[in-house]
Design goal:
By secondary structure, the protein is of the alpha+beta class. The protein has one domain: Alpha-Beta Plaits. It is 32% helix and 38% strand. The protein contains 6 helices and 8 strands, in the order βαββααββαββααβ. A hairpin with a 5-residue loop joins strand 6 and strand 7. Helix 1 runs antiparallel to helix 3 and helix 4 packs antiparallel against helix 6. The longest helix is centred in the middle third of the chain and has 17 residues. The relative contact order is 0.21. InterPro entries: CrtA-like. This is Spheroidene monooxygenase. It is an enzyme of class 1 (oxidoreductase).
Length: 225
């Protein structure tokens, strides 16, 4: 069963962080047990435009063959480098429950349903916007994110992406699956945006995954989510 780790680092110095972003992909190559990895910028998940971007917060999403490989990498050179240059670190360890769509042409999450899972869950969305449809997408965002940040059971919401424009995503941490489902199906703005996705042709590629949260370690903005 695969293991998914999301590390988020608060970095007081921007230039060294940009350097680690530039070299990190090569440094991760060949890591034993690594199935998938993305170095990500983060933001507030408020507008999904460059206004959201936070140059002092960066993330690494990795998918591993199992916990042993993930644990070894958690003490490996890439993570240690980020840790040494950071003032804060959050790590969320997860196991995929459901996934659909593609990320960079791949489905990184081999989901295994857990019918009895009643613990916290995370949701990951990622999309590659069609440039000609980006303005329409950005106009639809404000009511959706207002509902997201006000949703019952939400513990954390981040914008994530490989670039400030065009590669959009979210990572959200929830108290339970029931809270995710309640937001997805009861929030009118979210339902409307989902219904418009096909007709509006916003995305050239999209992915959604729901994951069981196995462990949360550390803090973000001074608090443990």
């Amino acid at each position: 069963m695969s293991v998914v780790d999301l590390h988020v680092w608060g970095t007081p110095r921007v230039l060294p962080a940009l350097g680690r972003m530039a070299t990190g992909r090569r440094a991760l190559r060949g890591t034993p047990g690594l199935r998938f990895a993305k170095l990500l910028g983060t933001g507030s998940a408020r507008t999904f435009t460059p206004r959201d971007a936070d140059p002092h917060r960066w993330a690494l999403l990795t998918v591993w063959d199992g916990e042993a490989a993930a644990d070894a990498a958690d003490d490996g050179p890439v993570v240690r480098g980020w840790r040494a240059g950071s003032s804060e670190e959050l790590r969320v360890r997860m196991s995929p429950l459901a996934a659909r769509g593609l990320w960079s042409g791949r489905q990184p999450f081999d989901a295994v349903p857990r019918p009895g899972w009643d613990g916290p869950v995370a949701a990951i969305t990622r999309a590659r916007l069609r440039p000609t449809r980006a303005l329409s997408f950005w106009r639809a965002v404000p009511p959706v994110v207002t509902g997201l940040h006000a949703a019952d059971g939400l513990r954390l919401a981040l914008g994530v992406g490989e670039a400030p424009i065009g590669l959009q995503g979210t990572f959200s941490l929830w108290r339970s699956t029931a809270d995710v489902v309640a937001y997805a199906y009861r929030d009118a703005a979210h339902r409307d945006a989902v219904a418009r996705t096909g007709p509006e042709r916003w995305y050239a590629e999209e992915l959604f995954a729901r994951l069981a949260v196995l462990d949360v370690r550390g803090t973000l903005e001074g608090r443990a989510p």
